[in-house]
Amino acid sequence: MDVQSYVLISIICPLAYIFIKHAAKLLKLCHITKQFVLNKVFLSIYSLPFARKCLILQAKFSIMIDKIRIENYKSIVDLTLELGRFNVIIGTNGCGKSNILEAITMGALGVSDNADIGRLAKHGIRVTDSNLMVNAFEDTDDNMSEFIQLQISGDNKPYDTGIALAYEEKWNKWVDIKPKEYGIIKQHYIKEHGETTKEEVPYNEYHRLRKELIEKPTFLRFLTYSPNESVMREMVRSIDVYPLGVHGEGLFQYLKLTKTRNLFPIINEGLRMLDWFDDVSPADDLLSNEFDVNITDKYLKETLHSFDQRSTNEGFLYLLFYLTLFNSQDTPSFFAVDNIETSFNPGLCQNLTKYLVGVSGKKDKQVILTTHNPFVLDGLDLSDDEQRLFVCRRDIDGHTRIERVKYREDRKMALSELWMSGLIGALPENF
Hints:
Layout: H1 3-26, H2 31-43, H3 49-60, E1 65-73, E2 76-82, E3 86-91, H4 97-111, H5 117-122, H6 130-133, E4 148-154, E5 161-168, E6 173-176, H7 181-193, H8 203-214, H9 217-220, E7 224-225, H10 229-233, H11 251-256, H12 263-271, E8 277-282, E9 293-297, H13 314-327, E10 334-337, H14 346-362, E11 366-371, H15 374-377, E12 387-394, E13 400-405, H16 415-420
Parallel strand pairs: 3-11, 3-12, 7-10, 10-11
Antiparallel strand pairs: 1-2, 1-4, 4-5, 5-6, 8-9, 12-13
Helix pairs in contact: 1-2, 7-8, 12-13, 13-14
């Protein structure tokens, strides 16, 4: 290739990427289609240094977990979840929705070798006897139910992350025995160094390749949030997970930080979903030990000035938490929220879902939500493949199953109506 051609392609490459990205967004193409188009365009010029940098930069902002397979966790025998960017799971009480989220959280801790009993509890996992953490169904082969297993694949890595957690009583923790990991790494090592390589993978090479091929930062930071009103109202509370604990602890400590000041205009805009809300701002005295915010109600006298989080309603607290969680660059890029509808009225549920869908795309967040409120669903647009709805249920043997509700053009009813009419499931049999 001559110099002129090289320079020309180097200039065209990023411009073409920007054009296609915005065109795809404008036309509301699905995620898969966008990725396919972008990949086809850039694969042919990937060898160019400049183009490669553009692709690497793009990959950093488009890390997505596309499939998770869970085996032998509580009510789950074998379940596969194919994810988009914004995912909502519905189902009856006790069908296994929370078990799905717990299994992913446990897998993330297991890969990091942090799945001790204390940490599991601090991360919101309902820890019980080890025999009850794996499935205990009579129709399951005992040899198959020894381990909790996960397979995680993402569009940014060529290999799956394989996790097999076994209980180690001596350490009071779940240990990842990684039955497939070494084979994956050895295969890639041989590919790099020649097919004739018979040696064991050197220690430093093993850890280098494990980091490149197996460990996914997106997955490793996965958390399931289930905020609690009483926890969030407390001025001081220890934080086990930075920057926001799984129950909302640390919210106001975090908002007091200087680096969060740019969040407040965004948070204020989102909080205007509440008709009484006027403004929220950080406390004036940044040097004090008080972790509070100033909240103003547009209906109150000016002489009243403002009040703090101890005096506001619980809906405000939950909304403030979610706005912070979704908009902050310090929070995980892949996480879950259990029972997103807590303390929200139906209209707010719908508006909040629409808002969070938009923010998750802008801030490059991938999220799984569970809900029992039908109006949460009305904020979804299932014609967009990045937004997905799943119905969770227990089958005749008691195993947790999941099924995606796909977009159908001929459907005229709102998703909330479909749910309440029993047309998509997720209702008790005697409803």
